[in-house]
Amino acid sequence: MLLISGCGKESVGTNAAGSEGATLKIAVTEASPPFSFVDKDGKLVGFDVDYANEIGKRLNRKTEIVSTAWDGIIPGLLADKYELIIGSMAITEKRKESVAFSSPYYVSGAAIVVHQDNQEIKAPADLKGKNVGVTLGTTYEEEAKKLGANVKTYDSEVAQLTDLENKRIEAMVTDKFIGAFTINETKRPLKLLDGLLYEEQIGVAMRKEDKDLLTQVNKAVEEIIKDGTYEKLAMQHFGTK
């Protein structure tokens, strides 16, 4: 687990949650460009990283970013390792059983990426019987199975993209922003299919008992949208809003 930007020693347990001035620990997902990843200089960067720091600034708290594997990110929150998850996590009824969510800080959706050479997969129904990559524990896994795909799970987007490029899988289901970023920025021989499998609202997750913190985060999310900061960050990292 990689700790970035901040060295405060304040407790992040429930009693400290929302305390102005206390260090705010926020989890992001590891190896998930353009949301959070380590650049060539060894710095943790990405849309969610910048958004997390913006939330900390608006809550008047020093921010410490914790890069965390996706499959352990909610357990880490419940174990008081951090106060917030800003990991491009879709708001679902199942997840709401364990955690509280802010109002959506952006809206995305599930998109299909295939190799440029692939002429067989043109729509979601074409995934039936195909070898399809998804990130373990995401909503994409469930959706791909519903469509009859042979699902292969991965710990990160990077591993999926490598397998897709080398034709070890026939498609992957991913966030539309990840797909667009990857194709435009990394020049991999891949293509993003038109249309979405479904739309997703993305929220900031926190422990259910941290009600004051939820109020503060919701206010910050609203401000970030209204003053144009979200659009600026989205264009910077995704090239679209």
From TrEMBL:
<protein>
    <recommendedName>
        <fullName>Solute-binding protein family 3/N-terminal domain-containing protein</fullName>
    </recommendedName>
</protein>
<feature type="domain" description="Solute-binding protein family 3/N-terminal">
    <location>
        <begin position="23"/>
        <end position="241"/>
    </location>
</feature>
<keyword id="KW-0732">Signal</keyword>
<dbReference type="Pfam" id="PF00497">
    <property type="entry name" value="SBP_bac_3"/>
</dbReference>
<dbReference type="InterPro" id="IPR001638">
    <property type="entry name" value="Solute-binding_3/MltF_N"/>
</dbReference>
